[in-house]
């Protein structure tokens, strides 16, 4: 027996040890599954799936059941095939089981070995920390017994450093050392070159300016015998740019400094006067080194940009001479005595000195040239800068003297004259005096500028000296105050400037302009200035002129104007014009939006710089690009002079930037003046053409509406507008001697004409109170005609339309600057004159006529409009009448709140009157107000049984109007007086009119109706007939309402009789409200109660042979058609459908009556009796009976209340039962007044032939049916209609209707026959019920308006071929065709139009 070894450390005991997978080694997992368990589970799963499939398929159609069953069988077969393969494979299971057990055993042993190795390694690392430490027993005994460690080595004391000195000890030693140094210096002789010696930290700091500095201390001897020790030495023998860098001089200095220190230390140690010896050695070393350094820099200087303009000579005495600004024609060679600009560096009395030839002085410093920088390049720049300053100051003095002499003679004595190239500035020997003189000259310059500012606004003489960084050494950091101003800045116009400086290479003057223009001119003027320095004045004036012209150039660009410096003009022999264009001191600006070529020429005076403005008119020469100068006008006005005076050029820094805006403002105003001048010239030409007397100046034109004598040009004096006749029409409003002022507004670009004249000759003082109390703040209500408190405001001041203005007797007119402004002005004067005349007449009529004064009141008077109010005391209604003008000055009328039909005749009568007399029109307005109100209410608010355009109003004259009803009947209304009017049948009045072309009908028994219903007495016409009735105006509205209701009744009976004659026999004569007829099966009576409500009564002739429909069913049919006929829309179609339904055989008619009764209790399904028009005329009808073919064409309409609302009210019972015949009332029908959002029409054709019954789709578009003749009459030939293809929706409807129709026929044939006395089976009800089930099922299951669904098929419901999705938002639906294609056009009704909104049948 194998005893297992004990577990290693850290492992659980034997009873708790587990394998890596966490399982007992004796109980390894068994991954085998029993084959019987697999078979049992597969059989159980297949059985359960079959049971659930059986329960689920009971509610599915046949196709889905078959599909689900096939899927189940396929999946089950696949599972059992897998089981079969598994069973065949199970024969080899024992062998595989043994192999698996062996593999598992080997894997288990391998895991044991791996675990044992891991545990051994883990135990090794754990034992390391378990060792016992080596305790230091002797040391522990010593510490415990003696308290110290006694076993340290003795040699450790040798390596321990001594303790550091404390800070008080250090301070004391340094203080004593400082005292010793002071004592030694007190008894030593100190050189005078030393600066004050500073002693600190035991050191003596010695400094000699610009040479060296050193630190000395003493050695360890006694006070008297101690020697000086040189601690450090720093020589100033390198340039300042090497102080912070790693230049070559500093590198060589650092490498040799140790040897220098040792040699100096040896010399001072053996000397009797060590400090003098120190200074002499180091001073000689510094001087020699500095001269050597400067000499070495000469070669580098020849490599700079100045190499061609400088010459360096090194003398035998170590002196260095540098020549600069050497002319190209000068040959210096080695001759040092040449008279050229140079400076010399030499040694004198052991000191380095610098001298400049010719001698120049610095204005602030006596010793300007020094050797501090030790850089020959910097010395050269300092010499050039000082020389350039003197040259620039010479120019400054010349310009200053010129300014002083031009401003005043008193200031001329302080200026400097006779200055040439070699003239030096007037500066003293010391800097203070020179600086004070310069400040004095600058103050004098400012005073001169202030004096010139008041004399000339364009004077600009702002000059100053500024500093430049060109002459400073960028490697030497120095204060900017050390540099001299070497640039002469001359301020130009418009923030521009001219800088004059000296070229540091050749010493010539250089012109630097702020802009890059005039480069060639700048080069030319530089040569002129360098040849003669006194040309500076002319050069500055040239640049000032160009800068001022550029300011006008920039202003032109800012204003969007074209500018030119040259114009291709053909000059005439005129000296004045030639002088303007000879010099280049002008700029031309083209004036935009002008028909002619107009240019604004801006000429600058060379001395004063004041611009002058000229207006040029140019024309293109034929066959040439040149232009001829037609005219030139100088713009010179007081306003322009003030603008020039107020234009401040540049007197401060802010003015520099404001000057350009002032130039822009000046140019803009000048352009406005130019345009004003141009338009005034155009106006003058028109006045000359009309030969009108006028006077003109720079700002306006004054003219008179009268002819002047013979024109100066000898032309004709005839005028085309203001003739004697036309002036006579204006004499009451405007006198020919009244002056009219014309000026031009550039902001509006319009002519302004103004004059003073009293507008009205009639006195308004008597009506002021009436106006303010009658119409103040009133409005007219459009519904009631009563004046409220809002908008009709009375204002005795004259309000003007947009282009006119009037205030306190001053008239202002505005016109465009076209050539017809004078014609428009005359047109407006004529209009004002007409309104003035009408207003005068109106005021006079109100004053003189007491009736007018009672009912008329002025609202307000305008120059082109007069408004007054008519107050109808009979109806308490107010009407606002406006009299205004059109574009041709014809008088127009407008009425508020409702129009007047006689308006055109009123306007015609006023306009045809020579004096625009309104007396007759006022009388007609008052008389026609009541009739006008009725006519407006008749056309706008028709009764519910009148359709639009059935009643047409045709005015005949100012007091007569004709009313047409359906173009068949007409009546004439004539106003007899202000209180009475006459009504006449137009049929009789038109007999006397030979031009009458309309065939009207006489109103049937009109005289009887008028006498019995309106109780009016007739007036005989010329033929002796009672056709004219007189009545009071107050009774007109009520009487006309009754007449038109009577005409409506006549027309309806006439329409019914015309249709019934085609299908029924007419035994009796019809009346205006009653009609009777008979057919093969029924007696029919149609009547209109009270000439308004339509009623129809139907009675069966043979109830014994045809018990169905019985009398109660026919009464229901009559009530149904009564409700449909009383609806407004599609009345004729409803009548036609009613007549065709009454031609059906009793059994078929009974089927439709049962449908009406069955779906009258809330189901939203109906037999449609109306539809919209189509290409085919027969497609307009919705119910047609074709008796010879035994076919009925009808439409089943399904109504929907809202989107996704389930279809309700459908009878889904399969077995036909007897139905009751309740009366149709509002309680049985859907809610009255409900407007459905959608409907779907299903056009159906039903053949009731007992031998061949069928139901199929009715193609309304392509079906030819005669609907106006009886079956026994030969039909007329069909209309030639091009066959129209069916839409995709109609194709889907066709498939649905044909399929459900065939199923309905089969279902009807399979029904058991009913016993005698029982109502027959209703095939129409079965068809509609099957169709409704499809529509309701889809509408109930549709989740969204655009979702497409397919209804399931079962044995109890018909199978739909297509599904219709109805959308309530966009009136669209989606149809699934039999092929499965999705179609999304709008849902169509019976003629493929769109969704409609029908009303419930009980509305």
UniProtKB/TrEMBL annotation:
Biased composition annotated in UniProt, kind: Polar residues: 414-426, 1379-1403
Region (Disordered): 1-30, 404-426, 1342-1403
PANTHER family linked to this entry: MEDIATOR COMPLEX SUBUNIT (PTHR12809), MEDIATOR OF RNA POLYMERASE II TRANSCRIPTION SUBUNIT 14 (PTHR12809:SF2)
Protein name in the entry: Mediator of RNA polymerase II transcription subunit 14
GO BP annotations, alphabetical order: regulation of transcription by RNA polymerase II
Protein family per UniProt: Belongs to the Mediator complex subunit 14 family.
InterPro entries with a match to the protein in the record: Med14_N, Mediator_Med14
UniProt-recorded Gene Ontology molecular function terms: transcription coregulator activity
Ranges of residues in domain Mediator complex subunit MED14 N-terminal: 33-219
Residue ranges with Pro residues bias: 1-11
Keywords of this entry: Activator, Nucleus, Transcription, Transcription regulation
Record's function text: Component of the Mediator complex, a coactivator involved in the regulated transcription of nearly all RNA polymerase II-dependent genes. Mediator functions as a bridge to convey information from gene-specific regulatory proteins to the basal RNA polymerase II transcription machinery. Mediator is recruited to promoters by direct interactions with regulatory proteins and serves as a scaffold for the assembly of a functional preinitiation complex with RNA polymerase II and the general transcription factors.
Subunit structure: Component of the Mediator complex.
Highest taxon in the source lineage: Eukaryota
Signal peptide residue numbers: none
């Amino acid at each position: 027996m194998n005893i297992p070894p004990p577990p290693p450390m850290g492992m659980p005991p034997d009873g708790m040890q587990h394998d890596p997978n966490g399982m007992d080694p004796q109980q390894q997992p068994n991954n085998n599954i029993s084959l019987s368990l697999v078979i049992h589970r597969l059989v159980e799963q297949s059985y359960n799936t079959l049971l659930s499939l059986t329960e689920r398929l009971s509610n599915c159609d046949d196709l889905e059941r078959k599909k689900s069953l096939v899927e189940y069988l396929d999946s089950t077969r696949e599972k059992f095939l897998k089981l079969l393969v598994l069973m065949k494979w199970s024969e080899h299971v024992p062998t595989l089981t043994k192999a698996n057990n062996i593999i598992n055993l080997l894997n288990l042993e391998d895991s044991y070995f791996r675990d044992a190795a891991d545990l051994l390694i883990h135990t090794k690392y754990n034992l390391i920390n378990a060792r016992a430490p080596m305790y230091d027993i002797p040391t522990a005994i010593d510490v415990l017994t003696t308290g110290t460690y006694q076993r340290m080595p003795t040699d450790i004391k040798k390596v321990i450093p001594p303790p550091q000195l404390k800070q008080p000890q250090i301070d004391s030693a340094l203080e004593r050392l400082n005292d010793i140094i002071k004592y030694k210096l007190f008894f030593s002789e100190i050189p005078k070159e030393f600066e004050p010696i500073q002693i600190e930290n035991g050191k003596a700091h010695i400094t000699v300016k610009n040479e060296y500095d050193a630190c000395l201390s003493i050695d360890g001897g006694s006070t008297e015998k101690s020697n000086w020790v040189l601690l450090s030495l720093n020589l100033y023998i390198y340039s300042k740019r090497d102080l912070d860098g790693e230049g070559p001089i500093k590198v060589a200095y650092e490498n040799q400094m140790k040897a220098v220190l040792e040699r100096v230390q040896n010399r001072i140690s053996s000397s009797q006067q060590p400090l003098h010896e120190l200074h002499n050695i180091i001073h000689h070393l510094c001087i020699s080194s500095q001269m050597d350094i400067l000499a070495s820099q000469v070669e580098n200087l020849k490599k700079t940009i100045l190499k061609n303009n400088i010459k360096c000579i090194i003398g035998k005495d170590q002196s260095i001479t540098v020549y600069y600004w050497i002319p190209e024609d000068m040959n210096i060679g080695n001759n040092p005595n040449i008279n050229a600009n140079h400076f010399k560096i030499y040694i004198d009395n052991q000191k380095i000195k610098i001298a400049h030839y010719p001698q120049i002085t610095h204005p602030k410093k006596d010793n300007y040239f020094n050797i501090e920088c030790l850089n020959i390049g910097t010395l050269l720049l300092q010499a050039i800068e000082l020389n350039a300053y003197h040259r620039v100051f010479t120019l400054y003095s010349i310009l200053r003297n010129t300014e002083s002499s031009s401003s005043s003679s008193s200031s001329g004595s302080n200026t400097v004259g006779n200055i040439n190239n070699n003239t030096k500035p007037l500066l003293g020997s010391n800097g203070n005096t020179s600086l004070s003189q310069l400040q004095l000259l600058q103050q004098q310059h400012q005073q001169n500028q202030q004096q010139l500012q008041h004399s000339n606004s364009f004077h600009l003489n702002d000059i100053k000296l500024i500093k430049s960084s060109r002459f400073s050494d960028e490697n030497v950091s120095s204060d900017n105050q050390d540099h001299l101003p070497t640039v002469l800045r001359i301020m130009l116009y418009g923030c521009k400037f001219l800088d004059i400086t000296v070229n540091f290479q050749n010493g010539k003057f250089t012109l630097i302009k702020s802009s890059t223009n005039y480069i060639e001119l700048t080069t030319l003027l530089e040569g002129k200035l360098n040849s003669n320095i006194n040309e500076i004045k002319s050069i500055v004036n040239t640049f000032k002129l160009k800068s001022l012209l550029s300011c006008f150039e920039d202003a032109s660009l800012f204003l969007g104007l074209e500018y030119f410096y040259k114009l291709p003009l053909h000059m005439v022999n005129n000296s004045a014009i030639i002088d303007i264009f000879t010099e280049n001191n002008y700029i031309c600006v083209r004036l935009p939006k002008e028909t002619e070529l107009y240019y604004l020429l801006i000429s600058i005076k060379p001395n004063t710089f004041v611009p002058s403005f000229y207006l040029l008119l140019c024309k293109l020469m034929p066959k040439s690009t040149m232009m001829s100068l037609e005219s030139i006008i100088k713009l010179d006005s007081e306003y322009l002079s003030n603008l020039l005076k107020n234009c401040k050029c540049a007197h401060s820094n802010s003015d520099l930037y404001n000057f350009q805006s002032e130039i822009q403002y000046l140019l803009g105003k000048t352009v406005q003046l130019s345009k004003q001048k141009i338009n005034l010239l155009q106006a003058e030409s028109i006045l000359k053409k009309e030969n009108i007397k006028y006077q003109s100046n720079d700002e306006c034109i004054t003219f008179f509406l009268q002819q002047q004598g013979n024109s100066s040009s000898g032309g004709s004096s005839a005028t085309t507008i203001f003739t004697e006749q036309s002036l006579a029409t204006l004499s009451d409003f405007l006198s020919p001697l009244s002056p009219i002022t014309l000026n031009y507004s550039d902001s509006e670009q319009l002519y302004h004409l103004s004059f003073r004249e009293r507008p009205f000759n009639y006195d308004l003082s008597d009506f002021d109170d009436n106006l303010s109390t009658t119409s103040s703040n009133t409005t007219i209500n459009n519904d009631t005609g009563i004046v409220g408190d809002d908008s009709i405001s009375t204002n005795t001041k004259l309000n003007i339309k947009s282009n006119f203005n009037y205030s306190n007797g001053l008239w202002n007119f505005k016109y465009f600057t076209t050539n017809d402004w004078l014609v428009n002005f005359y047109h407006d004067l004529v209009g004002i004159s007409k309104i003035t005349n009408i207003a005068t007449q109106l005021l006079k009529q109100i004053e003189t006529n007491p009736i007018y004064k009672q009912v008329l009141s002025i609202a307000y008077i305008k120059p082109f409009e007069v408004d007054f109010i008519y107050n109808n005391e009979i109806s308490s209604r107010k009407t606002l009448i406006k009299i205004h003008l059109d574009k041709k000055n014809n008088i127009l009328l407008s009425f508020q709140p409702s129009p007047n039909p006689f308006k055109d005749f009123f306007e015609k009568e006023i306009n045809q009157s020579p004096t625009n007399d309104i007396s007759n029109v006022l009388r007609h307005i008052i008389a026609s107000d009541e009739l006008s109100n009725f006519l407006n209410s008749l056309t706008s608010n028709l009764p519910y049984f009148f359709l639009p355009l059935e009643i047409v109003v045709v005015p005949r004259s100012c007091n007569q109007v004709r009313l047409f009803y359906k173009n068949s009947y007409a009546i004439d209304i004539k106003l007899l007086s202000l209180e009475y009017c006459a009504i006449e049948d137009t049929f009789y009045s038109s007999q006397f009119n030979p031009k009458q072309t309309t065939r009207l009908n006489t109103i049937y028994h009109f005289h009887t109706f008028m006498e019995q219903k309106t109780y009016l007495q007739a007036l005989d016409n010329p033929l002796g007939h009672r056709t004219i009735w007189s009545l009071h105006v107050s009774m007109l509205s009520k009487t006309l309402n009754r007449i038109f209701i009577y005409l409506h009744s006549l027309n309806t009976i006439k329409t019914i009789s015309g249709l019934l004659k085609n299908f029924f026999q007419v035994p009796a004569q019809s009346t205006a409200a009653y009609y009777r007829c008979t057919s093969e099966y029924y007696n029919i009576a149609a009547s209109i109660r009270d000439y308004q409500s339509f009623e129809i009564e139907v009675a069966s002739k043979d109830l014994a042979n045809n018990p169905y429909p019985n009398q109660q069913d026919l009464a229901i049919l009559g009530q149904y058609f009564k409700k449909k006929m009383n609806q407004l829309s599609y009345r004729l179609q409803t009548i036609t459908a009613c007549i065709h339904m009454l031609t059906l055989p009793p059994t078929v008619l009974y089927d439709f009556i049962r449908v009406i009764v069955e779906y009258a209790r809330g189901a939203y399904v109906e037999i449609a009796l109306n539809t919209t028009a189509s290409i085919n005329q027969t497609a307009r009808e919705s119910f047609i009976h074709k008796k010879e073919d035994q076919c009925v064409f009808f439409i089943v309409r399904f109504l929907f209340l809202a989107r996704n609302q389930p279809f309700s009210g459908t009878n889904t019972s399969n077995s036909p039962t007897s139905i009751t015949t309740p009366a149709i009332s509002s309680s049985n029908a859907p809610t009255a007044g409900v407007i459905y959002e959608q409907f779907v029409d299903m056009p159906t054709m039903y053949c009731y032939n007992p031998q061949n019954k069928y139901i199929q789709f009715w193609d309304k578009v392509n079906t030819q049916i005669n609907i106006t003749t009886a079956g026994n009459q030969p039909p007329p030939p069909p209309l030639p209609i091009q066959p129209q293809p069916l839409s995709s929706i109609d194709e889907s409807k066709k498939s649905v209707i044909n399929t459900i129709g065939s199923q309905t026929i089969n279902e009807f044939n399979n029904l058991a026959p009913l016993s005698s006395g029982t109502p027959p089976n209703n095939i129409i009800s079965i068809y509609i019920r099957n169709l409704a089930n499809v529509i309701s099922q889809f509408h109930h299951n549709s989740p969204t308006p655009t979702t497409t669904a397919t209804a399931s098929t079962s044995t109890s419901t018909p199978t739909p071929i297509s599904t219709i999705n109805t959308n309530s938002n966009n009136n669209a639906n989606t149809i699934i065709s039999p092929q499965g294609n999705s179609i999304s056009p709008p849902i169509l009704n019976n003629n493929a139009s769109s969704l409609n909104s029908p009303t419930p049948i009980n509305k």
